Automatic annotation (TrEMBL):
It comes from the Bacteria. This is Prolyl 4-hydroxylase alpha subunit Fe(2+) 2OG dioxygenase domain-containing protein. It comes from Novosphingobium aromaticivorans (strain ATCC 700278 / DSM 12444 / CCUG 56034 / CIP 105152 / NBRC 16084 / F199).
Length: 293
């Protein structure tokens, strides 16, 4: 749990060269000259291996991906097996803004970003009871304690929204950041739940401003925060690939304006940093009908 494979199966570890090394050195430079470097370096490895993180810095670097604020975690295979029959039920859930019910009683609401060049469906909890089903998965994965060192918060890292995401094709890139905040106040987990998810991956931008492909692996999830620029990769499948997606972060309400500008547009019911629930319509009424990406 929580261990990062620096040789990520994404292929992102390929093509290291002197420029990449220099970029890592530049990123790490403040620590190399820090008077307490011996104390800092062990702390850099305290929660997630395979990333460069200076304690107290809101950002970190994944040198294998050459990307900011991203790391991979293991997804237990027993969880994937438990979700498999439910994942299969999502294949036919395609109507925009329709509500569906899984065979375990969990109600889902479908939001489709129609401007994207993709048939992606974001199936989120349609009510609070369904939210708690996703919240149990979130706690099972141990995601909160994992990102807590990077996120300013008071008591806990909260789940805002959970999704079963499905898609079968993407004909054009829609490069974006999930979070419009300067610091790491919120994170996204994307983890494939079907083998098909390994064949329609992600395109992301490195810190050298290059585009790279990342292939998802069943049993692995990608966690990413602010300034991680990405899109569904261009591709076509003969079935809809399914993913688990979770949005989580700080419990401080003063950041909800910027955090909600993305996650509030993807679902109908969501939990706020203070633990209360709101709806997309209520969020828009309070903070404005803005397009975040
Ligand atoms: Fe995204």
């Amino acid at each position: 749990m929580g261990q990062v494979n620096p040789e990520a199966a994404s292929g992102a570890a390929q093509g290291r060269d002197s420029c990449q090394f220099e970029a890592i050195v530049r990123f790490a430079a403040p620590w190399r000259t820090h008077p307490i470097a011996e104390e800092v370096l062990p702390a850099m490895q305290s929660t997630i291996s395979g990333i460069l993180h200076k304690p107290g810095d809101p950002h970190f670097l994944n040198p294998a991906l050459m990307a900011p604020n991203a790391f991979e975690i293991d997804i237990p295979h027993d969880l994937i097996a438990e979700l498999a029959p439910l994942t299969a039920e999502t294949q036919g859930m395609r109507e925009n803004r329709a509500q569906y019910r899984l065979s375990n009683g969990v109600s889902l609401f479908n939001e489709r970003p129609l401007a994207w060049q993709s048939d992606i469906c974001w199936l989120s909890h349609a009510d609070e009871e369904a939210f708690h089903w996703f919240d149990a998965i979130y706690h099972r994965l141990g995601l909160g304690p994992l990102v807590a060192p990077f996120v300013p918060h008071d008591r806990e890292i909260r789940l805002y929204a959970g999704f079963l995401v499905t898609r079968s094709h993407c004909t054009g890139l829609n490069m974006h950041c999930d979070w419009s905040t300067d610091d790491n106040l919120a994170f996204t987990l994307m983890a494939p739940l079907t083998v098909a998810g390994e064949r329609l991956g992600m395109t992301y931008r490195t810190i050298r401003d290059e585009e790279r492909e990342l292939s998802y692996k069943l049993g692995r999830g990608l966690v990413f925060g602010t300034k991680f620029v990405h899109s569904t990769a261009i591709g076509q499948l003969d079935e809809r690939a399914a993913f688990l997606c979770l949005n989580f972060g700080t419990d401080r309400m003063e950041h909800w304006d910027s955090i909600g500008s993305t996650t509030a547009r993807q679902c109908n019911v969501l939990r706020q940093p203070d633990g209360t629930f709101t709806t997309q319509a209520q969020w828009r009424a309070r903070y404005g009908d803005r397009k975040a990406y």
